[in-house]
Amino acid sequence: MHATLPLLVASNFPALSRRVVDTVQANLGYRCNQSCVHCHVNAGPQRKEEMTPETVAALLAFIAASPEIKVLDLTGGAPELNPQFRALVTVARTRGLRVVDRCNLTILEEPGEDDLADFLAAQQVEVVASLPCYLEENVDRQRGKGTFGASIRGLRRLNALGYGVPDSGLILNLVFNPQGASLPPPQETLAAAYREHLGREFGIVFNQLFTLTNMPIQRFGSMLVSKGQFNAYMRLLRDAHRDENIEHVMCRHLLSVDWQGYLYDCDFNQQLGLNIGSTSRHRLHLTDLAAAALAGWPIRVADHCYGCTAGQGSSCAGALGDEVVAAPTCSS
């Protein structure tokens, strides 16, 4: 795999500083039942890294010492494959945290996960489900043959429990990623296309669609290098940069925690090994400080940060600004 960090560190991206941390995004491990071509984590079935019970305890202690934290955002890999997932969710919900599960949908059909959807509903976990297109051919090309069918079955199961249904209190948001080296279409326009197609063909409902820009790191970045498209993609991101998106980038209020408990400004910096707060080799851990101490800290930036500010902007909660990119289809 091609390393892209050396191609990103020399950057003129604007300086950023932290505000109050209200969201912790914890990566519970890189093991996943899928190997998606756009994956910025390089997750897959053969990965063994996972957060231990001791690190989960440290995570909960960190949150307990930081009352300003309101959201626990769980990601992976497939976070549900971590044996500590359900216990962590249960404790977090008992403490009144809003819990988000970044779910790939097909995990709902994995052996041993027959009751996962029921558990998520009982705990009122917010599901953010990856569905990179509403067309079967495109999804299977990006995520593997049969993935689309399993995803549709997963969505129907979640709908049957009340997810995505108005006034149910069970939030179901979908996530779109482009098929290749292009910016996402306008979020609201594409959401309308998703609603129309998924509703008509499968009777599926959902709350919001989040459009995410593919980051030029890990598996996707390596693919760009292999195809000779890396420099062109970076020009696309830089040329589409909008200063107004800087105000709303997620790293200002989100803290990323890796499976070992080390801290980063965002999940993308985590995958590049850009530890929080310093260019030194010393990595800060959950046990080293409280979230309040991070307010005002500089955020480490590199050229991949243009992926968050290009066009309508991109974050873990979708677009940041107005829609400016025309192409209301998920095949781009």
Written overview of the protein:
Mean pLDDT is 90; it is low at 323-328. The chain has helices spanning 5-8, 53-64, 85-94, 116-122, 136-143, 147-160, 187-202, 218-226, 230-239, 267-272, 306-309, and strands at residues 16-17, 23-27, 71-75, 98-103, 126-130, 172-176, 208-211, 254-257, 263-264, 298-299. The strands form two sheets. Strands 7-6-5-4-3-2-8-9 form an eight-stranded mixed beta sheet. A two-stranded antiparallel ribbon has the order 1-10. Helices cover 30% and strands 12% of the residues. By secondary structure, the chain is α/β, with parallel strands linked by helices. It has one domain (5-309): Alpha-Beta Barrel (TIM Barrel), CATH 3.20.20.70.
**Count of alpha/pi helices:** 11
Q: What number of domains?
A: 1
Find the count of extended strands (DSSP E, 2+ residues).
10
**Largest sheet, spatial ordering of strands:** 7-6-5-4-3-2-8-9
Any low-confidence stretches, pLDDT <50, length ≥5? Answer: 323-328
Task: Jot down its keywords.
alpha/beta, 332 residues, eight-stranded mixed sheet, two-stranded antiparallel sheet, 10 strands, TIM Barrel
Could you outline the blueprint of secondary structure elements for this entry?
Blueprint: H1 5-8, E1 16-17, E2 23-27, H2 53-64, E3 71-75, H3 85-94, E4 98-103, H4 116-122, E5 126-130, H5 136-143, H6 147-160, E6 172-176, H7 187-202, E7 208-211, H8 218-226, H9 230-239, E8 254-257, E9 263-264, H10 267-272, E10 298-299, H11 306-309
Parallel strand pairs: 2-3, 2-8, 3-4, 4-5, 5-6, 6-7
Antiparallel strand pairs: 1-10, 8-9
